[in-house]
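Quick note —
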Amino acid sequence: MSKKVRILYTIPNFKTAGSQYVVRSLLKGMDKSDFEVYIGVEKFPETIPPLVSKEHQISFSRTGHLWKDAVSFSRVLKKNKIDLVHSWDYKSEFVESIGCKLAFVRYLYTKKNDAWSKRWFLKSFLATHIAYDNPDMKRRFFSHGLLRNKITFIPHGVDTTLFKPSDEKKSHSKVFNICTIGNIGANKNQLFLIEVLQTLPEHVHLIIYGKAHALYLEQLKNEIKKKALESRVHIHGFVSNTVLPNILQKQDLFVLASKREGLPVSVLEALACGVPVLCSDSGGGSRYIFGNLADEHIFEVNNQQEFIALLKPFLENSSYYSKKRLQAIDLAKQFDVQKEVSSYSNLYKSLA
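Predicted structure written out below.
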């Protein structure tokens, strides 16, 4: 490559945005001889990772006026001689895409969530290219002739240097811990697990981590009290990636009961820590992760009997459990974050 490609990553912030972990991996893994990287945030510029120098940090202010904000954005691109914008914004808005058009800069965005509308179609139409992380999105969102020739499937990866099995042998315990991690809300469907728990043996406990929606949390607590499960359900708050591996390493099983998901990174993180996973059939991503093992790990959303049938051998058969633990580690290796970094690097080069 004759000159470095100047890339601007845009993300709402590095405080609450889930995509921050992917962007951090890209910042660490990109070949500095090929790419010069800038970071642009809307809020909390003080949380931008220190590995990005101050002169490569950009803070955007929005007026709420589409055209004014797009023009302002285009000026930022021209000032910093940006070649490519890669957006990690979860919203269906057009400021960046129009600003890129005005500045003659290529615009790439990664589709992460399950939302779709006319606004998402227009954002996709304006984009130079689109990356998506769930194989089912190609059929559901990008089959239109105006979109299908400018998409690339890039599955998320997991940092296996951070998320890995513990070197310590797991201590024997009479308690079997089922863990779920994610926003505590209707889509993550923790209520399903509480409803199932009352039918499971007394030694099975449920561990819940995540930022909670107040009304849903109140509903969970009411159900826990109603079913007299206070001693078997343990609810904790949000945890950062720095402490998450240590938490996962102590669990016996990870369960994601979501109603809708893309490609669930929490599943990859659990697998990388050697924790077997049961996952709802919530959008195609989980089936992609498990491949020909899907029937042993995936249950229909809210199907209690199917979930219990999949769970039973984990509780009753120690050799089955040991086999699944080894399979978990092998599965995670296929989704090492360096593969994701390499895929994006190749895409940037093709676009530049």
